[in-house]
Structure formats: structure tokens, C-alpha cells
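Side project, low priority. Logging it here so it doesn't get lost.
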Amino acid sequence: MNEDRNSQRLLILASKLGYQTRTFAEAAARLGVEVTFGTDRCERLEDPWRDGAIALHFERPEEAAEHLFAKLGERTPAGLLVIGDRPLVAAAHLARRLDLAWNPPEAVENCRSKLRQREVLAAAGLPVPGFFSLRAEEDPAAALPRIKFPCVVKPLALAASRGVVRADNEEEFLRAARRVRNLLESPEVRALHEPESNRLLVEDYIPGVEVAVEGLLDRGRLRVLAIFDKPDPLEGPYFEETIYVTPSRLPEKTQQEVRECCARSVRALGLVHGPLHAEFRINARGTWVLEIAPRPIGGLCSRALRFGPQRIFLEELLVRHALGFAGRDWPREPDASGVMMIPVPRSGILERVEGLEDAAAVPAVCDVQITARLHDYIAAWPEGSSYLGFLFARAASPAEVERALRQAHAKLRFVLTPRLPVEHPATGRVHEAG
């Protein structure tokens, strides 16, 4: 292991330079690590944020990898980290080009497509819901004979439960399919140029409790960092997440089944190195795979995890792991911890937030972060994908953490006003302003 940290370079690929990206950069700076960013910003802008980021087109991953390889020149990174889903395939091609420890492109492609992931896991005998896909322009009524209700309709291309809708009967399915198709046809989504952005996935609805797993792969060996309980039932019709709490309160036998299912899924998909975030449903029939993603947990949720005697956050642990530094094997702290992704009660323009001091004063609450910007339009699920903010708590037990998060949330009030309808001067069509 090279302890000359000042000579180490880390490459971070991200679809945008948000708060999670800054947290990784701050962790690298504490370790004396030089960071190079690659993002999918417009290449015509001359370094507008003064961060020296290399502009890339992640929708063309092999081209992005070659462009980045050429741009890096002598600044060859010793490690690679990826934030979000969009850069994953480009990162895999670049890692192969640079001979860096990471996941092969084929494995990342297996995860990047929801349909492909279902096919690979089903072929390997993993428990996944029944599924089929259809093109967005197809008449959804033609798919009705194939559906087992209740079902879930989702886009293949989006993340964070965006566009995921439960349907309990034929009428609800037709309405859900139209709603997801409208989302995929929106200018915002079309601008992403995502592959398979014109397809829908239809799955059997799997009842049960849901957990998230945060893991770390080290050349094929899976280390489970935490199992998060999700105490709020995610039963639909939309699937906006709220509370994560760890350690899990599930029986140890059930937790071990989750770990084993996760390890089998990872092997089937071909993942070998780097961060891992996974979602599972558990019921009387066993543990079901919902999603496996070769990236860390999103947003600020990682702040719910601290490791080792220095209580470092997940980002620093991942930087240490990417560069082979000491401390990469530190265990999670013994305290219970949790995060609430503050849900969006309805779509609207965020005018003000009330009760922040009262929420922060709740015992066991250790941080309140409002990430939504005042006077911005905030979309509720299923069209939305951004939370109002995050609440964090730490205590001796998971029950105390959950209670603190709920009490703090009850003290917050978000004032949202609707956007005004505006008539387009050319077409005469009425749409929302903003």
C-alpha cells in the first residue's frame, strides 16, 4: 500500500456537482488526495464552477471513456469513484483502459438496465418478481392479458423511484402507463438521452417489508456495511422513500438471508469491486431482489453511516477503499442511526420552511438539512425525484432513532404554492408556469 497520500490522485465521475460530490471532495482533501472530476456539463462552458472538471457525454459511454483517458494525460488516477447511475458505464470502460480495480463493463450494463438486471437474476435462479417490458408508444391495453394484479409500472431509464406506480386493476394500469409515458416524453427526461428511455417495465407487485443494503466489494468479496430497515410501508400507489434506520431490527436469520441473497445477486451480475447499494423485499416466500446498483447510496443519506474510531462518514471510507488507504476496513459505529428523506407532500413552489429550530432541538436529532431551494418548483412523486431535505438522528437503539426522526418531521412545515397556468402565445395551449 502506498502511504504517500499527496501523490495519490482520485477520479470522481458524477452527473452533476451536487452536495454529495462536494462531500466526497472534502473527504479526499482531508486525506491530502488530489481530485479530478468528470461530469456531463456542457463542454462549451469554460470551467464555470472553477473546479477543473472534464466535460463528458455519459450517454455515449465508450466515447466518454476515450475522451477522458486522453484528457487525463499524465494525471493518471490511482482510484475511481462514481456518484449516481449515469456515469457507471463510462467509468467501467475507463477503468478497464486504465487497469483500475472496478467492475467490468458487462456487469455494469447488467445493472444499468432494469430489464437486463431482471433477466440476468431470473436466469440465475434469484427470486425476482414476474416481469415483461413494452414500448412507451404501444397501446397499453394490449398488455392487459399478460398482467397479474396488483402490478408495478416503471420506466427502464429513471432512478429514485421516479415514475414507479402501483396498479391494482385494469383501469389503474392504463392510467399508470399513460402517466409514465408522459413523464418519459417530458423535455427534462428526453434531454438525458438515456438508453431504453422509451420502454416501460411491468412487474408483479411483491408485498412485504423492505430493506436497503449498503455494501462494499473488494475484488469479489462482499462486505455488508449496513442493513437499513424502512419502517414506513412502501405499498404504493407511489414509492417515495422516507426513513432508513440501522442496525436492522429484523431477526438475525432474516438478515443473514438478505446478506446471502445480496451476495448471490452480485455474483450473478458479475460485479467485483466498489460500492454497492441494494434493495430487497421480505415476506413469507423469502427475500426478493428489487434492485442492485454498483454505486453508493444517494443524496445525503450516507451521513447516517460512520465508521471506525474517528467516526468517518461513508464518503471517506470509500475514498480510502478506492486508493487502498488504511482504515478502509473500519467497522460501522456501534450507535443506532437513521435518516429521513423529507417527503414532498404535493407539487408546488417552495415559499418557506417553518419549524427548523424546533426540529433540530428534538433529542437524538443530530442534523437538519433542507436541500430544496426557496422559490424553486418541487415535484412530488411519481414525477419528482428530489427530496425537500434530510433529517438525521443517533441514539442507543433503532426505536429511539425512528421516534426522533418522526418527532422532528412533525415540527416542520413546508409552504408550497401551485404554479400559475399560462397560455402559450404561439399555440394557445395552457401549461404551468415555471
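Brief comment: Residues 130 and 258 are 20 Å apart (CA to CA).
Revisit when time allows.
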